[in-house]
Amino acid sequence: MSTSLRAAQPATTIARGKRLLFVINEAFFLLSHRRAVVRAAQEAGFEVHVAAPSHHAWAPEGFDLSDLPGQGLAVHVIPLSRRGRNPIADARTFTALFSLYRRLRPDVVHHITVKPNLYGGLAARLAGVPAVVYAVSGLGELFSGRGLGLTMLRPFLLRGLSSAFRHSNASIIVQNPEDGRALSAALRLSEAELVLIRGSGVDLCSYRVQPEPSGVPVVVLAARLIWDKGIREFVTASRALKAQGLNARFVLVGGAHASNPRTVPADTLRAWEKEGLVEWWGYRTDMPAVLAGANIVCLPSSYGEGVPKVLLEAAASGRAVVATDIAGCREAVVSGETGMLVPVGDAPALAQAIRELLAAPDTRRAMGLCARRRVEAEFDERDVASRTLAVYNELLERRGPQGQAAEKHR
Question: Which of 244, 356, 359, 396 is deepest in the core (most CB within 10 A)?
Fold first, then answer.
């Protein structure tokens, strides 16, 4: 495969009156990361549906699937476990999706995350769905996980995905070129099947450049609080810098969900707070205010990122960032211009980068303004939505007799 992927172009015309179905493992993720796509599809005339499980791990308190119809979404509850490896439960997921596709007759199905891509993709092939999109929002555990169970399971998952992705009229959206190359090699995909859309974009109206807060500088890590996001390295850097006499506040923003075995336990977070290493602000829905209150934003992740949304939000807020030198983060950060990239798992390098930026407020401000200009030019969520709709449009235009027959029998 060549070093460049085909980039989706902005939509021009979209066929109206079509039925679009999103399949996702957590409905709130659709609102947090694909809201602009949903709105653009509705404005283009799509009848938008979402299939998701009734439970959710990362949504804010009080969120419920019943909130979605008020936003013009038709909801279909499906049995789907984010992390479960029970073959009987997964068979129920496949059966439910196959039945839904046959009953609903969608024109386009957009799968998001691994299990929807796998079981939804297989069901879409068998049910004769005319156009299918597979969204790979980073390679996640599938490629970066190191546990024995995952290592043993990975070949079977890859074979399953290879089969699921063999729909005759489909596109696979990746968020960075490195993920595209890795998927192409692992699943033997052709370059024509892959489309590059760099992340979910950012709402440039909600996130605005504001002056940095005065007083003791604040360094924020906002993410799902799982170990793979670099939580340990962040705390280790805080301990080292405080031991050197640096006066700064280190803040963790995110929930601690016990349902995920990789989550940092709440007791550990509280112990770090008691030790004076970090402040734990929990899950926050006011991220523009959180980032405006930061001097530096960190994401020392080792996870298989797509393009981390929080880094784009930090850039839109005019904040310099420190992140790890991995796929996805490299898309969001230009090292030395909009922030700094450090090696994965290197807490001393992370601490040094934070120290350097805290000591150089003019450099931070210059990086933040450069970051803002870059997201305005390259990561506006409206542009991401337009490019996603262009993928739907392309698939609808080239669908064959199978898809036309499906529409007649709706």
Answer: 396
Neighbours of 211 (CB within 10 A): 8
143 and 251 fall within a common domain: no
Counting the structural domains of the chain, the total is: 2
Angle at alpha carbon of residue 256, lines to 250 and 261, rounded to 5°:
120
Q: Kindly report the pTM of this predicted structure.
A: 0.90
Could you tell me which residue, 359 or 14, shows the higher pLDDT? 359
Sheet order of strands, 296-299 included = 279-282, 249-253, 218-222, 296-299, 320-324, 339-342
Give me the mean pLDDT over the 317-343 stretch: 97
* In-domain check, residue 329: yes
Q: What's 281's domain CATH number? A: 3.40.50.2000
Same domain, 404 and 370: no
Contact 341, 333 (CB under 8 A): yes
- Give the whole-angstrom CA distance, residue 7 versus residue 194: 9
Assess whether pLDDT exceeds 90 at residue 156. no
Return the HEC string of 67-95.
HCHHHCCEEEECCCCCCCCCHHHHHHHHH
CA dihedral 59, 65, 66, 72 (to 10 degrees): 100
In this prediction, residue 145 carries a pLDDT of 58
**Same domain flag for 19 and 114:** yes
> Does 24 share its domain with 134?
yes
361 shares a domain with 308: yes
Helices (H), 244-400: 266-275, 287-292, 309-316, 329-332, 347-358, 361-378, 381-398
Distance CA 196, CA 364 (A): 30
In whole angstroms, give the CA distance from residue 405 to residue 410: 9
Same domain, 31 and 178: yes
Does the residue 391 lie in any domain?
yes
Domain-located, residue 206: no
Q: Residue 395: left if φ>0, alpha if ψ -120 to 50, beta else—which one?
A: alpha
Q: Looking at the domain assignment, is residue 1 inside a domain?
A: no
> pLDDT exceeding 90 applies to what percent of the chain?
74
Q: Are residues 335 and 389 in the same domain?
A: no
Same domain, 280 and 356: yes
* Residue 314: per-residue pLDDT: 98
Task: Specify whether the CB–CB gap between 372 and 318 falls below 8 A.
Answer: yes
Is residue 409 scored above 60 in pLDDT? Answer: no
Host domain of residue 151: 6-201+380-408
Render pLDDT for 284-314 as a digit per residue (tens, 0 to 9): 999 999 999 999 999 999 988 999 999 999 9
